[in-house]
Design brief:
Elements: H1 8-17, H2 22-28, H3 33-41, H4 49-59, E1 79-83, H5 89-109, H6 128-141, H7 153-159, E2 163-165, E3 174-179, E4 185-188, H8 195-211, H9 220-234, H10 237-244, H11 252-262, H12 266-275, H13 281-293, H14 311-317, H15 327-333, H16 338-345
Parallel strand pairs: 2-4
Antiparallel strand pairs: 1-3, 3-4
Length: 364
């Protein structure tokens, strides 16, 4: 490819997607850490063909992948992570790279399918009252009843044009991730086996998308605001307040009854009641102590049903049936190896059917 321009940013993208450092990749392809760095930063504009071919073999990308412009890379300032403090920066880079690659897939699919247009309201919020209003206005914007549970929160966001991807980096150090941009995405970590937690994680990321457009997130303030938004969005203060107060005294039977109705965790219900002044500090602490004693902080009973994300999966499954383009052709268009396409999308490339054709007769 002598007439084409090498794009070092794409090498960095592929390397980060595989979770490798420059030193680790260099070791795999018999190159120095410095040479890999020069290639990625564009200071080595024409790397040797065999070096790029070797990188493609190790990372799972066709050589031509590294010679096309990168239109929409996920940037740090566009992304929000719902994670534990111990989450390494390298993992964040890996997730952003995964998101960028998903964006490439979605961009190609948009030429074939009519995806819902992005319909995210913007309600900047600073105070708790601002956050409560932002959650209520979000419900109104999406024509959701202020007095009823949201039974399929994923579908609400997908109808608003947000792609929800259920296969993120396999680690318990990150619950969810979102990005707002040309392709807006929520990554949901379903290795954490709690459907009520998935519901809250989606609502939390929705809070970032609605309240923090153009704002760098990750601080304790923005995370607390997104938590408050999730609570207010899932448990509207007036309707929830009436139902929580309907019981003459605190009981776990009542708490789990509310959980079954509103499709949120008992922990979220207790916290919401405390935030709204329906449960005092002593009662709140006693309730959380009991949750921990029962082991419910690691997994609660009466988990709600969860509607898996549909938008991206439906489009991928329609390839080769409702449109002429097959998954294998899409994989080829994006210059990916089949195993990489599956790692990105969760969809395997079908193996060709039929017996192989014998080109030469047996010598026997």
């Amino acid at each position: 490819m002598p007439d084409e321009i090498f794009v070092g940013e794409r090498l960095q993208l592929a390397r980060e997607f595989r979770g490798l450092t420059q030193k680790q990749l260099g070791k795999e392809v018999a190159a120095s850490h410095a040479l890999i760095s020069l290639c990625e930063t564009g200071k080595k504009p024409a790397p040797a063909k065999d070096l790029i071919e070797a990188c493609g073999d190790i990372l799972g990308f066709e050589q031509r992948f590294f010679y096309e412009q990168l239109a929409d890379r996920f940037r740090e300032e566009e992304c929000s992570f719902r994670h534990r403090r111990s989450m390494p920066e390298r993992m964040k880079a890996q997730i952003r790279a995964h998101g960028t690659l998903i964006g490439m897939v979605v961009d190609r699919l948009r030429s074939l399918f009519r995806f819902p247009p992005l319909n995210l309201p913007a309600f900047p919020a600073r105070t708790n009252e601002d956050i409560e209003l932002a959650a209520e206005q979000s419900r109104t914007h999406w024509k959701l009843d202020l007095n009823s549970p949201i039974l399929q929160i994923g579908r609400v966001l997908e109808h608003a044009g947000v792609i929800i991807v259920p296969h993120v980096v396999q680690s318990t150090k990150v619950d969810a991730f979102s990005r707002q941009g040309q392709t807006s995405i929520i990554f949901l970590n379903q290795t954490i086996k709690s459907t009520s937690r998935w519901v809250f994680d989606i609502a939390h990321e929705c809070g970032h998308l609605v309240m923090h457009q153009g704002i760098h997130t990750g601080s304790s303030e923005t995370e607390a605001a997104a938590d408050r938004y999730a609570s207010a969005f899932l448990l509207p203060r007036r309707a929830f307040g009436r139902e929580f107060s309907a019981a003459p005294k605190f009981s776990w039977e009542h708490i789990f009854g509310l959980k079954r109705r509103w499709h949120v965790s008992a922990a979220a219900i207790i916290r919401r009641a405390y935030d709204l002044g329906l449960l005092g500090a002593a009662g709140y602490r006693q309730a959380y102590k009991y949750l921990s004693f029962k082991g419910w902080t690691k997994g609660e009973p009466y988990e709600p049903t969860f509607q898996p994300p549909e938008l991206l999966a439906t489009a991928l499954q329609a390839l080769g049936t409702r449109v002429e383009l097959t998954a294998a052709a899409l994989c080829n268009d994006l210059r990916l190896r089949p195993n990489t396409f599956q790692d990105i999308t969760g969809i395997a490339i079908p193996t060709p059917k039929g017996k192989p054709v014998i080109l030469f007769p047996s010598l026997a």
